[in-house]
Write a structure and sequence with these properties.
The radius of gyration is 30 Å and the shape is elongated. The protein has 174 residues and is of the alpha+beta class. It is built from six helices and five strands; from the N terminus they run βββαααββααα.
């Protein structure tokens, strides 16, 4: 886009593609306005808290406001709003020890009635992996030994070093 002063009246005119010229100050057709509000915690609470208190789900609020439901959830919890339990809809604090978390269950454990319990079958393999790791074996050597002794993985596939590595890293965290 280029511009050049109009010598006759001192206005600046814009030359655009297609030869169309538009004067500054000339009447333009009305436009739709898009509300742009910063996503500060205060603004999120102003918009989302009343909707949540009306009984709307986080997903419904996301559709109405355009704010991601994760952002809504995090903002509400950081500001002390009790979230409803998705299982029964009651507005009470969710106990993470009683509710199954998303993602995969840690190796060596299983969920029973919403509680994380030790899985005896997988604990044998877990102890073997940790023992071999402490003995100085590589992840590939551990995977090979588990495959040679026909110790099953959770999925029934052969052991690979990346799975052994992730199990070892999670075992170190505990």
């Amino acid at each position: 886009m280029s511009y050049q002063p109009d010598r006759g009246c001192g206005r600046v005119r814009f030359l655009e593609f297609g030869g169309r010229t538009q004067w500054i100050g000339e009447h333009l057709p009305p436009h739709d306005f898009i509300e742009l509000s910063p996503r500060t915690p205060t603004r999120i609470i102003e918009k989302c808290a009343p909707l949540y208190e009306e009984g709307l789900s986080l997903r419904d609020i996301e559709e109405r406001t355009g704010i991601p439901k994760t952002t809504i959830r995090e903002t509400l919890t950081k500001n002390g709003f009790p979230l409803r339990n998705p299982a029964n809809g009651n507005a009470k604090k969710i106990d993470n020890n009683q509710t199954k978390r998303g993602g995969s269950t840690p190796f060596g454990y299983a969920y029973l009635d919403g509680k994380l319990l030790i899985d005896p079958k997988e604990q044998i393999a877990l102890r073997k992996i940790v023992k071999l790791h402490h003995a100085g074996k590589s992840n590939q050597a551990i995977a090979d030994e588990l495959n040679n002794k026909n110790i099953p993985t959770r999925s029934g596939k052969p052991w690979i070093r990346s799975v052994v590595r992730s199990i070892i890293l999670k075992a170190k965290e505990k």
